[in-house]
Amino acid sequence: MIGRCTHVVDCRETMGLGEGGGIAQRGTFAECGSDVLAVAMSPGRRHITKPVCEITFALREANVLTSTMILNAGAGTPSDAPGASGGFGLTDKEVNQMSQFKLLVIHLGGVKNHITYKARLILRNVNCPCVVICEYPVDFEDFAKIGVKTSHVMPNEAKGGIKTNGKIVDIVSGVIRGETCSQEKLDEIIRKVKLALGGA
User: Do residues 140 and 125 lie in contact, with contact meaning Cβ atoms separated by under 8 Å?
Assistant: First the structure.
C-alpha cells in the first residue's frame, strides 16, 4: 500500500450501546500507540460519547496515534464540586493507564462546573498535559480560579494555589455531545493536539 496507514483497534470491552451498538460502553480502553489518549465520560442518556469516536478517527487519519478510554464513573460531579451530585471518580487502573500517555484529550460536557471540576480531579491524579474539549465556552481563567494549572494562566497563591499535577495546554469549546462534530472543529482539535505534542 502506498500513502495509507492502517491501524487495527479493538475498541470494545463490553457490548456496544446506543443506535446500532455503535457507542463504546463504560470501561472501554482501546489502545493505539502511547502518544494521545482521548478520555470520554460514561455513556448514558445525557452522556453521548459519539464525538469522541469522530475525534479519535480524525486524529488517527492525521497520523496522531490516539487511544480511547471511557470512564467507569464519568457521570455526575466530583464530591468536592459546589452543589456536588457525587458519582464522578477515577479508579487506580484508569489513573495508571492515563499516566502512560504524552497527552490527554478529555471530552467534557456543557455545564461549566462539571467541566472545570472533572478536569481538576483528573489532573490532580494524572501528571500529563491535557487538551479539554467541551460544549460550554470555558477559558483558562475558569480553570485557574479553582487551582488547575494551565499554559496561559496559573492559579493564584493567595486563593489556594496549584491543586493539580497535570496542566491544561489548550481548550476546544463548541463540541456538542451526541452531535456530529463539524470538520472545522475536527481541524481545530487536530491542530491543537499536534501543537501540544510539539508539532506545528
Answer: no
CB of 111 within 8 A of CB of 46? no
Distance from C-alpha of 119 to C-alpha of 109, rounded to nearest angstrom: 11
Question: Rounded to 5 degrees, what angle do the CA atoms 94, 67, 104 make?
Answer: 65
- The mean pLDDT of 81-89, rounded to a whole number, is 82
Q: Please give the Cα distance from 193 to 104 (Å, whole number).
A: 9
Instruction: With a cut of 80, say whether residue 144 has pLDDT above it.
Output: yes
30 pLDDT tier (thresholds 50, 70, 90): confident
Longest pairwise C-alpha distance within the chain: 59
Q: How is residue 143 written as a grid cell? A: 480553570
In terms of C-beta density within 10 A (0-12 exposed, 13-18 middle, 19 or more buried), how is residue 40 classed?
A: buried
Report the pLDDT value the prediction gives residue 195, as an integer from 0 to 100: 97
